[in-house]
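Crash report, auto-generated. Payload:
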Amino acid sequence: MKKILRLGLPFFAALLLLAACKQKADFEYYYYEPEDYALLSQYLNLPSKPDNYLTKLPKHLEAQGLFARAVDQDKAILGRVLFYDKNLSKDGKVNCASCHRQEIAFSDDKPVSRGVFDRVGTRNSIALGSVLNFAAYYGTDLFGPSGIPFFWDNRAGTASQQNLATMANPLEMDMGHNDIVNAVRTQPYYAPLFRMAYGDETVTVQRVSESIANFINAIGSFRSKFDREAERTIGNDTWSNRERLDFAGFTAAENRGKRIYLDNCASCHSPVQGRPMKMYANNGLDATTTDQGVGGITKNPFEMGMFKVPLLRNIALTAPYMHDGRFATLEEVIDHYSTGIKAHPNLSMELRSGNQPRRFNFTAQQKSDLIAFLHTLTDEELLKDKRFSNPFK
Amino acid sequence: MSRAYKVVLAIGLAASLAACTSSRFYTPNTVNLPTMSQKGEGALSGATFFGSNSGWEAQASYSPAQHVGLMVNYFSLNYKGSIAGTSGGFFPFPPPPQTNFEGRMRFGEAGLGLYRHAGKNREYLLSLFGAAGQGHAHNLYIEPDVPLKEATWTFWRYSLQPGVRLQHRRLSFGASFRFSYVQYTTGRIDARIPRLELDRVEMLEAQSPMMFWEVLWTVGYHFRPITVSLNTTGVALGKKSLNDLNLASNHVSLMATLNLHELKKEKQSRGKRKKK
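Recovered output after restart:
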């Protein structure tokens, strides 16, 4: 027995020692060719390992059939560069981010956006960060033109259609298809990026717009305080009105505000900030049609003056409000719903009582509760998310 | 049909029924549970397994001194399958794109240990072995129309395995708990493999080194000098993050063991018989 111990013990001790020298794994990941990466690094801050553009939505959103679909990471990386590239505008001063700024949830702080040569647009920029996830929300990869459409007047069916329209818009970037292709071709950093995304360096307008669409499709807001609490309290169970339960992590004011929201606003804007309950509506901004909105596209008289029902994610950051940016603050918006709704002929049912526009007549307390609730929809992580930031040096 | 045939048939059937889930990140080799009972004894074993995972194992053990044993094990595993590139994909949405993968894992280890008999008729064999070994995995990800993507990684495993074996006439039963400390060291990974897979590889890297138990069950039937056995070795994991990696794999092997000392005896007795 002694012999056993003499032989065995040192061996097991040595084994333990070997195992004890804890060493971290050191894996090497390769993506770009070294010379490509050197070239890219002259102009861009791109990580050597590709960013992950796949999204997993929290349970309370997935339970509604919303989930982020495949985004091609190689195209999204190219799309990110295009999104921030000022060479894609006529005067070389405007990029997508000029009117969709990350720090304010990809919105613009001007009532109506300014494009190339400071030309003034007609509508307020839509916050790209107002939806839980572009691909999940619009589903344009799937439904094509019959998905939830883009723009205030729902005129674009897919993200590619949308961004081509934007680039071509003389009030925005004012670039025809040939201008875009030429602008992209002349920048040295695009060749490697196109090779990663498409296998060759050929620049076409379809590839440009598809890549931008992949990047936009990855943008999403689902990490707000509201989402953290909703995932905890509602989870998978979206059928038994669990959103009406008080959220443990909310303040009393936020919970009161949530109840007011669910009673008066959720029938259009969605109870869990998933999909809006209505695609478009008139919310009584004016008594007569000033901007035809959806009706201008469909020519349907019953749709005149109707606009996209926006999701309210990050709403505290995206002032000014409404399609024309007429309200500078959330207080003004709430005042509008409280006492200012006008009797437009197409005013939505939810905002009528009989033939008269509805008066919510919120008290001061109710207004501040509602605003406290709207602030819980802010997703700080999206604002700092490196994957969506400006890659240019 | 002789009894021996029935037993072999039963073992074969069990082997084909046994669910064998292997993981491309870590699959345990069959625990080498010694059979030697005194100095000078040794055994050679070979095992094979089938299905979407196939391969073979070779094991050897020898006792150079009373109560002391040595062992060497080699494990070669080929696997293939397909993985989803992204999550989601329930009705009415189209299923996420699938990528096929194919890979192989090679693992070799050497160990040293102690054994002794117990029980009234010395029917129990208790053993405690320690071992160290290295594994290497090579994976290919295959999608139509694009170049193959590769991922390789290497790991070390240090283990300690107390075990017990019970011999009852021609049948033997054994069990062992192998405490394993697995340390991934280097890897080279094409970052364009499907994103979910890349996430898993990153998780593997972050989780390493990891510790877990592996449990062996074995049933054998003995016809001198060979023992045929059915073995299952499974990883018993506690940590959820490791479960996500599907490391909780279960490996079933059908093994034939040649007991060298019995072979010698057999020859001797045959020789004796001839002389007579």
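Post-recovery validation: Chain A has two domains: 69-220, 225-380.
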